[in-house]
Amino acid sequence: MPDEKPDVIDSEPKKGILPVLLLLIGAIAGYVVGSLTSGPDVSEGGQTSYACALAEKVRAGHQSEDDWGTINEDPAYNEMMAIRSLLGASMSAGNGEDERFADLDWSVVSEGGVEAWGTLLDEIIEAC
């Protein structure tokens, strides 16, 4: 029986409605989830929360004076300025509206060295 043909598996993909339905369901679910979630919290409370998280991040990476790089290489310097701004302390009106941060000495951000910055970060984290 050398003329017998071997069983051939049908390698043609089956075209059906299931892949189309799954794609459609995924698209609808993505749209619904996307429309239900809100954008970032840019309120004063949201900015304070972000400043607190940023202060913890900077402090975690800068435990001693030796951990600070140069101004041009270490993003922590910009992050310190951002923390100050997010808490409203860079305004000429004072230290922002949140009383927890009213007694902090923000002058060390522009005038003090990294040792003073570490102390300020600790005070911010404690106030948070």
From TrEMBL:
It comes from the Bacteria. The keyword Transmembrane helix applies. The keyword Membrane applies. The chain crosses the membrane at residues 16-34. Keywords: Membrane, Transmembrane, Transmembrane helix. This is Uncharacterized protein. It comes from Nocardioides abyssi.
